[in-house]
């Protein structure tokens, strides 16, 4: 072997040893961390992770950490590709006092404008009717339901944020749907996971992250346009929506030093609620319809329950859920089975924390793996099978489970959980009340495996026919 090659190998070996020793020394100085795979120099644990399906490689005690130690685990951990966009602002990706104030404001304002009240239920019921009319225009022909299903939950959120709904054929509205859909796909791609591992390097390379940043800027420009309209028509005695409420809060705190109610936080808070309230619900609806096609016997049982409890002469309402245990169980099973955001959003500990026999230092990033709970084999026998029986007792009554946490749990639980659960029940039952679903291919040939599983799981593209119910 050439002497220079030997020297180079020796140099690399020495540097690697020094880096490894340094990493171990740092670990010793950072508390007694839970056991895990030994990181390699420079690349850390990258080779030990499946970047296409990271949740399979990670697991932790979710409920104990996020609920019993809720305050300590309430920080938001590093998520480089999102940090490059949000810069720690807004609701979903902020921490500390900023997060507390944005969350408190968001919860209060969402409640003020109907969340948890009859008024928001009526709004969802109205949107469900618009959804039915839009689906009728497909004339029973095979169609991709992605954007139609996105429009319905997005309009519910828009009514709270902007006091406005959009027509389903509005081109600007459809463009927003495309931007949100593409955002989720890019965040769930292997490239996004690589960016999160090497942000300082990858940000300068060509790749889909540039498309993501551009799309997010277009979304922000749309929101800014709405904010300017609100500023011009603001009535301090009659706030009409979330933006009005935030603008009034900004006015109240304009003389307060370092107030968190700034134009930047308004932009990112609205963006967080707008995106999360649209993407997660619409993807769950789409995945649910795919599972209905795959399991027509389950769909038939839901329709039987709809006919018995609701009939065809009125719209479904939320109180019907108490009389429809099978439908309720199916919707819960959809959310469990699809495991939409498998690795949750990263958390961090807000102070040095004793967790079981370990000491986790302040600032440590935590990945609360929802998969480890939603696919727990003791709680859900045969978790890889889609089975509504996971949420039914022996008498066919709905059975609650402490392991059902698709919205996360603890201090960081999704602020829109109640609204999302209402939407899923009302949209699913309204669709099945008005249409028979038909797949262009044999149900046995339908593949429900996600096409990507990074930030979120992306269902495969599919088409279906919405055939008007014969007994309407």
TrEMBL record:
UniProt-listed GO biological process terms: organic acid metabolic process; xenobiotic metabolic process
Alphabetized UniProt keyword annotations: Endoplasmic reticulum, Heme, Iron, Membrane, Metal-binding, Microsome, Monooxygenase, Oxidoreductase, Transmembrane, Transmembrane helix
Presence of the UniProt keyword Transmembrane in the record: yes
Cofactor requirements of the protein: heme
One Gene Ontology cellular component: endoplasmic reticulum membrane
EC numbers on record: 1.14.14.1
Compartments, record wording: Endoplasmic reticulum membrane; Microsome membrane
PROSITE patterns (UniProt xref): CYTOCHROME_P450 (PS00086)
Gene3D superfamilies: Cytochrome P450 (1.10.630.10)
InterPro entries membership: Cyt_P450, Cyt_P450_CS, Cyt_P450_E_grp-I, Cyt_P450_sf, Cytochrome_P450_fam2
GO molecular function terms listed in the Swiss-Prot or TrEMBL record: heme binding; iron ion binding; oxidoreductase activity, acting on paired donors, with incorporation or reduction of molecular oxygen, reduced flavin or flavoprotein as one donor, and incorporation of one atom of oxygen
Any Pfam family the entry gives: p450
Enzyme class: oxidoreductase
Positions of transmembrane segments: 6-24
Similarity remark: Belongs to the cytochrome P450 family.
Stated name of the protein: unspecific monooxygenase
Organism from which the protein derives: Vombatus ursinus (Common wombat)
Gene designation per UniProt: LOC114042597
